[in-house]
Amino acid sequence: MPDANKDIVLEIKDIHKSFGDLEVLKGINMQVKRGEVVAVIGPSGGGKSTLLRCATTLEKVDSGKIVIGGDVLCENGSYCDRKLEKEIRSKFGLVFQNFNLFPHFSVKRNITEALIHVHKKSREEADEICSRLLAKMDLKEKADEYPCNLSGGQQQRVSIARALATNPEIIFFDEPTSALDPELTKGVLTVIKELAKEKMTMVIVTHEMSFARDVADRIVFMDGGVIVEEGPAYDLVTNPKQERTKAFLAGY
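-> structure tokens emitted (252 positions)
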């Protein structure tokens, strides 16, 4: 009998996270299957970005369990050893709200640096991966440019290329278009739509409701540190069940 767990790339069980006296995550449970696109929506301060930061090791949870690609990152407040944590980090990519490119590196070096020095690829192989991904992002002619010479949309597409370069099992996006104007937003969302068509496993924190409805397989609505409602993307946006979800979506 096939192992159903092999299809689960991300598993989060009853995680809690506090900053001082403020409990930001209050027992979150979530699974993401291979090839699935999950959009996380909700008001500011609802815990969305903290959830992503915990899933990507940028913050440590107080309790609960996180499993990525079949490896246990943490359980009951105890984290795995550094070697395994490094392996787990290689299984995911992360695209930040504000690009987080190295300003003193060229576009090419931003993409190849980790491939060469962390993932031990040869320079030739790293260059080939970079070239292929920049072509995919329609940025091949920008390889030798520095981030300051790119538009915000171009910088974000370089960030996506960098996240894809290590061939991750899952990519996390934290409000990937919030720093962009509407015209530049369109280009970045088009790239993410193409990745969805290719069955890239993704978790996307977003405030773009029409994008979430049309691209995600499933939407998770968070507020007050809990998951209020989740379900198939189109159904949740067009026919939410919970009053809090209805009130939130009425603003869009």
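The two ends are 45 Å apart (CA to CA).
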